[in-house]
C-alpha cells in the first residue's frame, strides 16, 4: 500500500509539474504574441504619426507659406482666358488675375454679364479685355469660332472654370436629359476643347498655366449627383495626365479639387449658400487657390477643404455613400428657378 501511495504521489507531482510547464509555455507564447502585437502597434502608430506629420507639413507649405510667396503670373503671357468668367469662381479668377496685371478674355453665354464684367475689370484694374459670347452647352461646333477669336493673343493662362451641377440632388432618372447633356458638354468637353485650342501656343513658347476646376466630389462616387461627380473625375484625371505629358514643356496643369464654395451652384442649400470657414465665398477661395500655383499641382485650394479631403481619405466608401445619401436626401430636390 505504501509503495502504491508513493507511486500515486509521484504521478500526482509529475502531473502538477507537467501542468505548470504547460501553463508556463502558454504564458510564454502569449508574451511572445504580446511582444509581436506591441511591435505591430508601434509600427502602426509610427506610420500614422509620420503620415499625419507629412500631411501637416504639406498643408503648411501649400496653404500657409505660399501666402508669403509672390508668384508672378504675367511671366506666362499677356492674356488669361476664363470660361464662365461672369459669376462666382470664374469672375473672381478674372478679377484676381486682372489685379496681377493680366489682360482678360471672358467666355460666357450671357452678353449683358460679359459686357458688365469686362467694363468692371477695365475700370478697376486698367487692363484690356475681350469678350466671347459662347454657350458651352451646345457642344463641339462652337469651338472653331472660339479658336478664331483667340488668334493673335499671347495666352499664358487658361482657367477652365465653367461648370454645371444639378438644380438640386436627384436620382439619375429624375434629372432632365438636357441637364445631363449640359453636364457632359460643359464639365468635360469644354475643358478638353479649350485646352486643345490654347495649349499649342503654350507649347511653342514653352510656358503656360492651365487651371482645371474639378471637385472633391471626385474622391468617391456621389449618390444623387452621379453625373456631376463622374464628370469631375474626368477633369481631375485629365489634368494629372496632361501635366505629366507636358511637364518638360514648361507648362503647369493644376487640378483644383475644392469642396463646397458659396456660389449660385449650391443655391439648393441654405447652409452651403452661406459663407463660412468651411464654405468660403468665391473671392476668399480664389485668393487662396491662386497662391498655391507653383506649390501644388493637385490641391483643394483652401485649407479647410484640405482638412476635409484628409478626413475623406480615412473614410471607407460605404460611410461616404451613406453620409452623402442622407445629407442630400434632406435637401428639397424640387428644381429651383435660375437667377437671371
TrEMBL record:
The family this protein is said to belong to: Belongs to the short-chain dehydrogenases/reductases (SDR) family. 17-beta-HSD 3 subfamily.
Main location: mitochondrion
Keyword Mitochondrion included in the entry's annotation: yes
Keyword tags: Mitochondrion, NADP
Any single Gene Ontology cellular-component annotation: mitochondrion
Protein name per its UniProtKB record: 17 beta hydroxysteroid dehydrogenase type 3
Keyword NADP carried by entry: yes
Lineage: superkingdom: Eukaryota
CDD domains, per the entry: 17beta-HSD1_like_SDR_c (cd05356)
Compartmental location: Mitochondrion
InterPro entries from the UniProt entry: 17-beta-HSD3-like, NAD(P)-bd_dom_sf, SDR_fam
Amino acid at each position: 500500500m505504501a509503495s502504491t501511495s508513493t507511486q500515486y504521489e509521484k504521478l500526482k507531482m509529475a502531473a502538477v509539474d507537467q501542468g505548470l510547464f504547460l501553463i508556463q509555455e502558454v504564458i510564454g507564447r502569449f508574451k511572445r504574441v504580446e511582444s509581436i502585437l506591441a511591435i505591430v502597434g508601434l509600427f502602426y502608430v509610427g506610420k500614422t504619426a509620420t503620415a499625419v506629420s507629412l500631411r501637416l507639413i504639406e498643408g503648411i507649405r501649400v496653404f500657409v507659406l505660399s501666402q508669403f510667396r509672390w508668384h508672378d503670373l504675367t511671366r506666362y503671357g499677356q492674356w488669361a482666358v476664363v470660361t464662365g468668367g461672369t459669376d462666382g469662381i470664374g469672375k473672381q479668377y478674372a478679377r484676381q488675375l486682372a489685379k496681377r496685371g493680366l489682360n482678360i478674355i471672358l467666355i460666357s453665354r450671357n452678353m449683358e454679364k460679359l459686357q458688365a464684367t469686362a467694363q468692371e475689370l477695365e475700370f478697376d484694374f486698367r487692363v484690356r479685355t475681350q469678350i466671347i459670347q459662347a454657350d458651352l452647352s451646345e457642344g463641339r461646333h462652337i469651338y472653331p469660332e472660339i479658336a478664331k477669336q483667340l488668334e493673335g493673343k499671347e495666352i499664358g493662362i487658361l482657367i477652365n472654370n465653367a461648370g454645371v451641377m444639378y438644380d438640386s440632388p436627384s436620382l439619375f432618372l429624375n434629372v432632365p436629359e438636357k441637364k445631363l447633356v449640359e453636364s457632359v458638354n460643359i464639365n468635360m468637353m469644354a475643358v478638353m476643347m479649350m485646352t486643345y485650342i490654347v495649349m499649342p501656343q503654350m507649347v511653342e513658347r514653352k510656358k503656360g498655366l492651365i487651371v482645371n476646376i474639378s471637385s472633391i466630389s471626385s474622391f468617391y462616387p456621389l449618390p444623387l449627383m452621379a453625373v456631376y461627380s463622374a464628370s469631375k473625375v474626368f477633369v481631375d484625371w485629365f489634368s494629372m495626365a496632361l501635366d505629366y505629358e507636358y511637364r518638360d514643356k514648361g507648362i503647369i496643369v493644376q487640378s483644383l479639387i475644392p469642396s463646397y464654395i458659396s456660389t449660385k451652384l449650391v443655391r439648393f442649400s441654405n447652409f452651403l449658400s452661406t459663407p463660412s470657414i468651411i464654405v468660403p465665398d468665391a473671392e476668399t477661395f480664389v485668393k487662396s487657390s491662386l497662391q498655391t500655383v507653383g506649390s501644388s499641382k493637385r490641391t483643394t485650394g483652401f485649407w479647410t477643404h484640405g482638412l476635409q479631403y484628409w478626413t475623406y481619405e480615412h473614410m471607407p466608401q460605404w460611410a461616404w455613400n451613406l453620409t452623402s445619401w442622407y445629407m442630400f436626401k434632406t435637401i428639397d430636390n424640387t428644381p429651383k428657378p435660375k437667377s437671371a
